[in-house]
Amino acid sequence: MSRHQSQGVVLTGYHSNAELLPQTGLCGDSTSSCPPVPNRESDLHSRKTGHYSLEHNQSTQQQQQQEEDRYGPSLATGGTGASNTESGSGSAAHPGSQPSSSPKLASSPRHSPNSKPRPQRTCQRSFSQDSLDELEMDDYWKEIENIKSSGEGHGRAGGEGETQEEEQQKAPEEGEHEEAWLTEAGLVRLVDDSLGAEDHEEDSAVFLSTLTRTQAAAVQLRVSSYQQTLLRRRNRQHLPDVRDIFRPPEKNEEPPKLEEGSDKDATTAETETELNVEVAFSEQALSYRDNNQRLKVNNSLNSSDDKLPNFKLLRDKTGQTRVGDLSPLDMKKARRLVLVEMTALFDTAGIDVKANKPGRVKSKESGLFGVPLITLLDQDHRRDPGTKVPLILQRLISHVEEEGLDTEGLLRIPGAATRVKSLCQELESSFYDRTFQWKQVKQHDAASLLKLFIRELPHPLLTVEYLNAFIAVNKLPTKKQQLQALNLLVLLLPEANRDTLKALVEFFQRVINHQVKNKMTLNNVSVVMAPNIFMFKGFRSKVTEQQEFSMATSTANIVRLLIRYQNLLWTIPKFILTQVRQQNMESQRKLYKDRAVRKLLKKITTDRPIDKAIPEENTQGFIRVQAPQFSKISMAIQLTEDLQASDVLTRFLSQDSSVLVKKEDLCLYEIGGNIKERCLDGETYMKDLSQLNPAAEWVIKAVQR
User: Fold this and answer.
1) What PROSITE patterns does the database record attribute to this sequence (predicted)?
2) 306-336 pLDDT, tens per residue?
3) Residue whose C-alpha is closest to residue 320's, from 674, 573, 695
4) CA dihedral 442, 447, 449, 455 (to 10 degrees)
5) Fewest C-beta atoms under 10 Å: which of 122, 160, 294, 469?
6) What is the CATH T-level fold of the domain 619-704, as seen in this structure?
């Protein structure tokens, strides 16, 4: 691609010679959430071929002539002698082009009708992953063309809705990113007391006291940057002091040393499969950076699914904590820490990730497609309280699975446009009435509706704020750091987005499990779904051709990692939980320093009878487990080295036959002490946890799913 650019040739678009049905659009009039059907010709080209459009710069005719002399006229200028059978699946390394017969696509320079074809070698689809760069990425561009040909947002030409959204977007003012970051981290009062209200739950000093060195450096960098911005705003005419300009650089502090045995040799970081979650990811990355300055990132997807490292968490005896296990108060604290840690991790690699500010988008207030996730879930809660994933998405997934996951090309082959349009409209009117006839929905149509649902969200599933950060993950130097960054980003997503994304990647994995028959490997699914997740309609009008080409492999890689490591990404790292515990303990110390509060607590202690058996049992190697929701209110259990949380539940159920709840619907909770509330992993060793939090109470409750 660089060779063509240097000689006045610009790649302006990719054209997939996909099999076209009589109509390839999806649906719609202007009032419908379903996109309109374009009027394009039905060219019956081979599904296995594709090409890029080339645009020549008229100012480089001499360079083009030299190219012809060197490579021949057909290769240098894309002569018309190339036939469809000669062009194979294209990639950025092997661009080709062909005139487009689509009036809508021709309106964009990416689909210029004046572009000419260029011959390519033929390729056959391979399931060994060896030809991924050409054939599997070909599926990405086919999916892009399917999206554009559906008429959603009218491509880069821009529909009215997209134009309006673009007009509302404005460039951020100086210091706006830093202010937004500090506000989200709850630290804006560090720079200006007038910004933000007093936080009574936790003051900034407590929060800052628990940060690691790299986390503190990330905060200090944003605070200093914002303070300098405020100074420039207040005194625009201030002349800098020459001593400030030529002041010698301050010496950096020594990088923090990891605990002995806490991290492996940095040279084996890429092959090491055990993830250390006890030491902050940014601290590990700093150690890696200092030992591997010259290593570069290799984000090639040209590897088999089974070649990805088989990462696993180091087993923690105090239990693994998953998203949803913590109380809302503790999760709020964890999220602030995760934001600072994510920023610190990118800082160690010299990557400046700035969150975008979401613009105001006109969206529907009811319906199924084109409705904000929160609005959609509010609708669903009135029919099914407690649901965390939109009902329409759940039903589409279940219908695809009911038809069987062995269908070849599942998710890759699009449904019939006219049927998808009709189904979309019928669903809008009859889904909640439960009168919709699901038997009429073909499997590929249901898969197309699922992808349409994702694309039509007013804001991207990965959120406008963190979309840049997700894409920037590819710049991190190792797969381990990329995985760690994705773990933090998943935790930063709003609950509705996080739960919906989880449902999707779980479904994708079930499709991949049938790859022997459906021919949809991890890489295949990733490249097909990447444009649907990242190229949402508000974004498609803003991205340039060059950005789209560079994003292709990057976004596919992100989707691949989300699917492959989903069991790790929806967990809260132990070091984050440790910092939450430290904050809770520090807050308690500050509370007890207040004499008036201490006197009040003393009065409460003397007036209220306390069951002193609990601390006494703890010192004697017993814990008392309470179950106020059930007939057997409490029981004493002796702590042993091998006693796990699942053993406690088993013993409780065996002693109370009146309990009708299944074991998997119950959870042993750690409550109080240095944590607000935490649902315990079944493999948690109770003796180790009771030593970590001796003041905790242990309560069995039904899990709120």
Assistant:
1) RHOGAP
2) 578 889 888 889 999 999 999 999 999 999 9
3) 573
4) -170
5) 294
6) Ubiquitin-like (UB roll) (3.10.20)
